[in-house]
Amino acid sequence: MSYSFKTSDVPLPDRFDYFQVAAAESYIRCELSTPAGRDFFAEIDLKPIDDLKLSFIQTNSLHADIPRPKRETSVPDIAFLMFVTHGCANITQDGREVATRAGEMCLLDTARPYSVGQPQGAKQYVLEMPRLELESRIGSLHHVTGRRFSAGSTEGVLAAGYLSKLFANPHPLNADAAPSLARQALDVAALALGNGSTDVVKRLSSPAAITRLRLHHAIDSSLGEGHVSCEDVASMAGISMRYANLLLAQEGTSLERLLIQKRLERCRDMLADPQLQHHLIGDIALAAGFGSASHFARSFKETFGITAREFRNEAGHLGALHDGLPNLRQYLAPEA
Fold first, then answer.
1. How many CB atoms lie within 10 A of CB 136?
2. What is the pLDDT of residues 268-289, one digit of tens each?
3. At 56, is the pLDDT very low, low, confident or very high (cuts 50, 70, 90)?
4. Which of 122, 241, 307, 322 has its CA 20 to 30 A from that of 252?
C-alpha cells in the first residue's frame, strides 16, 4: 500500500524517533543521526510497484549507516537506486566515496555496508529492487556500487523520466499492469547503470524492451506538444506505425488507444488542478493534444462516465471540502 510520512505531523520532540520507524518501514533498518536536533524535518512518499518500491524522500541534515550484516541476520536481498533531484547525497560503499549531486544517480547494495550523508535540502527518488533481478540484467553489482551515473545521458534521461512520471501518477496502479511496469522500471535502471552496454542490453527481460520503453517515452513527451499524430509519435521513437502497434498489442492496446488514454489522463489531471481553474476546458483539451473539442468531450465522457465540466465541478467541490477540514492524518498516512 502507498503511504506518506511527514515529520510535521508528529509532535516536535518525537519527530526524529518517528522518522526512524518510517525509514525502517520504507527502506531498511539502519543507524541514523542528524545534527538538526529538534529542527529535523523529513518527508517520505512511497508507492509499491509489484515487487518494487518507488519513493520520494526529502530531508534536512541526515546521516545513515548500514553496518555489515551479522551472519545470523538474514540479509535483505535488495538494491537501491538513488536519483538525486535537489542537493547532494554523499555515498560510501565498497571503499568508494562519491558526492552524488542533482541530476545524478547512485546504486547501493544492502548486502554490504554503506553510508549516506545528506546535507540541508536533499531530495531524491529511491527505487528499491530485488538484487537478483537487477543482477540478471547487469551482472555483479560490485562494479557499479558507490559510483555516480549521470541522468543526462540517453539512458539516464530515459530512466529518470520514467521513474519520475511513474511516481507522479496520482492514480492507483492497475494490478494487471503492475508487473509490466515493474519490469520496465528494472530495465530502465539497468540501462542507466550499464550506460548503453551491449551486455546489459542483451540481458534485458525482453528483446523489444528498449524499443517499447522508447515508444512510451515518446508518447509521454508528445503530450505537451499540442496535436501530434500517431505517425509522429512512432517516428519520435524511431520505429514504424506497424511495429509500434505490434509492440503495444503485447500490452493489450494500440498506439492510437494509448495516445488517447494518456491525453485524457493529462486532461483529467489539469481539470482537477485548482491553479488551472481559469483555463477554458477547450484550451486544456487542445494543449493535451486533442485536435477538436468535440472529440475530447465525447472521449472524456465515454472513458470517465461524466462530462469534463461535471468532473471539474466535482473536483473543485471536493477540494473546497478538504480545505475546510482539520488535518486528521495519521503519522503514516495510507494513500488511495
1. 14
2. 888 988 888 889 999 999 988 8
3. very high
4. 307
